[in-house]
Amino acid sequence: MPNLTWALLYAVIITSVTHVRLDEVKDSETVAALYEEGTQAYLEERFPVCVEKLEQALEKYRWQRRNTQNCRLKCKQESEASDTLFPVDIENLRFFEKNIKNTLCLINCKIDSNGNNDNVDDEIQKLFEERKPYEYLHLCYFKVNDVQKAASAAFTYLVLNPDHKVMAKTLKQYSELPGVDLKDVINFEAKDFVYLYVYGSDAYEKKDWDNAINNMEESLASYLHEEEECRAQCEGPFDAGWYPDFVPAIANHFTYVLKCKQGCKKKLGSLNGEIHADLLASHYNYLQYAYFKKRNLYAACQAVASYLLFLPDDESMLANMEYYQKLPKVQDSFFTPREEVIRYVQRDTYEERILRYIKNEFKFSKTSAQIAEAKQGRRNFRFTKNATDLGGGKRFASDGLISRNECQKLVYIANNFMNINDGYKGSSGGEKSASPHTKNEKFEGIDLRRISFLVYIGLLKPAYLRLLLEITEEMRVKLVHKFNIEESLYFSYTHLVCRSALAGSSQNRTDLSHKIHADNCNVLGDNICAKKYPAFHWRDYSAILYLNDDFEGGHFIFSADSKGRKIQSSIMPKCGRMVGFSSGSENLHGVTGVTKGRRCALAVWFTLDPTYQELDRDVSQHMLDNDITFHQYYSQDINTE
């Protein structure tokens, strides 16, 4: 690195994980939280904790995944079997009726089986499906001298990532260590059908026809079940994007899900790293001969017909069919494909035709609607209130800085990664001290350091960090422009925050969500504001960008006095609305109580003193510019000496 060494980057990132954690019961920790704690422990060289947390994260992810799959499969089956509300299907209402029943079942199933409400989002799912936790875990096993598990963890990663040269080299190094038995190196994520298939093929080679049949039949049932679970896993959320109208939204979501479901065949076609394009069909190849050797001609012919339904031009199997047809006891009716194959191939053929139709027919250039969405926030920016409107000096309000879609992306970070009382040192968290400002609300936050760390370890896409940096830079530019700031204006601190009304709190409360204060001095009384510790006396300008309006209360207020008796103006938050002001006692401000829902905002403070500029911003930008993540850095070299 020309300007920033890896050591410095590591040092800055690792400090980001010293944030205050939620005061949670360990059993209720989310998959994301466990993964983050495990990677944090790895970077801090607390390897036993790394092993503990990553194993817990993997176990909980498997449980969550299986739970989601079971609910979706169960509810689909129940809704399909349910009695209809009307005997005639009019305008496809029966389709929607079944989906409504399916949805009700899914809600109840989730409530019954997932009390901790741990939703595994797309980012977490992708991370675990790509086996990323094993990139840390194999090293943590090695560091705690569990070399057998280290080898298995490396192998588990390689099964899905066979071209990863560094991991292949690492596995070779592990295999040469004392205490590693190659026979006991396993794939931690192997499906049951893999072992059954291997046992069946071994029995086949040994001419043990009974075991060949039993294992292959069990493998076949297990494979089909695994594919159904994989397909169920595809039925997750989807961003309707720029065209969320009713019919296109259904079609877009269906297409997204269908592409995912069609990918399940490829995902399951690996036997410990060896890709078998026709793995499902090959079961019937083994079965036809094994059944023939056991003189079960009907089952042998069924297996032949089933195989040919997948691969109708296979010359070897066509020759087998011709041989069987000449046997005296064989009838033409024997060559009927098995039921599960008929259904599977029909569904697969129909789905492929739908996807082919979509690919061939939906060819459009970028529409004006898409372009409008992309430009909406920036183009619609306008100053709506000046200092006079707001009753003071050096303050303004504006609208349209970002689009609703961009608001939702920042709220996504808030929904998945915030911590209680983040940004307030000494806060212990927990329900009793859920906010440093009021007992009636919960205060949550996440700063730029931790967002960068989440990108670094793969929990968050770099696009979210890039968006945050772009938006906050625009906030800075608007301040400079509006206040004619001629000196360099530096970022001092960036904080994504949400305030939520606690259950049971009164909607008639009079306390403030955030008391009247100044951002760079301690208010000691009217006209007295001391610029000394613990105030952030170096802050010169402040800006707050609001992200939502689906809550009650939570108005931003300017006040002429520290008690809030002389309110000068009140601003109701909404997506894209920004308030900017100088940070001193000339702009005393606060927030009225949030009485219902959750209010989220992006708060940024600026300084004219480069000594107090936010170094995390340079680190974050450097990470993005150079594509630096743990996984990218790890791939450069690894040393198990």
Write the layout of secondary structure elements.
Elements: H1 6-15, H2 31-43, H3 47-81, H4 93-113, H5 122-129, H6 133-143, H7 147-160, H8 165-175, H9 192-205, H10 209-233, H11 246-262, H12 264-268, E1 270-271, E2 274-275, H13 279-293, H14 297-310, H15 315-325, H16 339-361, H17 368-379, E3 382-385, E4 395-399, H18 404-417, E5 419-420, E6 441-447, H19 448-456, H20 462-483, E7 490-501, E8 512-517, E9 522-525, E10 528-530, E11 541-546, E12 551-553, E13 556-559, E14 567-571, E15 578-582, E16 589-592, E17 594-607, H21 615-625, H22 630-634
Antiparallel strand pairs: 1-2, 3-4, 4-15, 5-6, 6-7, 7-17, 8-16, 9-10, 11-15, 11-17, 12-17, 13-14, 13-16
Domain Fe2OG dioxygenase: 494-608
Signal peptide: 1-22
GO molecular function, one term: L-ascorbic acid binding
Give the beta-strand count: 17
Supply the number of helical segments. 22
Determine the strand fraction and express it as a percent band: 5-15%
Proportion of helical residues? 40-55%
Class inferred from helices and paired strands: alpha+beta
Shape: elongated
Distance between the termini: 25 Å
- The overall average pLDDT, rounded, is 87
Folded structure, characterized:
- It is a single chain.
- The protein has 641 residues and is of the alpha+beta class.
- 50% of the residues lie in helices and 14% in strands.
- The protein has helices at 6-15, 31-43, 47-81, 93-113, 122-129, 133-143, 147-160, 165-175, 192-205, 209-233, 246-262, 264-268, 279-293, 297-310, 315-325, 339-361, 368-379, 404-417, 448-456, 462-483, 615-625, 630-634; strands spanning 270-271, 274-275, 382-385, 395-399, 419-420, 441-447, 490-501, 512-517, 522-525, 528-530, 541-546, 551-553, 556-559, 567-571, 578-582, 589-592, 594-607.
- The strands form four sheets. Strands 3, 4, 5, 6, 7, 11, 12, 15 and 17 form a nine-stranded antiparallel sheet that branches.
- A hairpin with a 2-residue loop joins β1 (270-271) and β2.
- The chain is elongated.
- The model is unreliable at 1-26, 366-377, 425-433 and 633-638 (pLDDT under 50).
- One of its GO terms (molecular function) is iron ion binding.
- Its EC number is 1.14.11.7.
- Its cofactor is Fe cation; L-ascorbate.
- Residues 1-22 form the signal peptide.
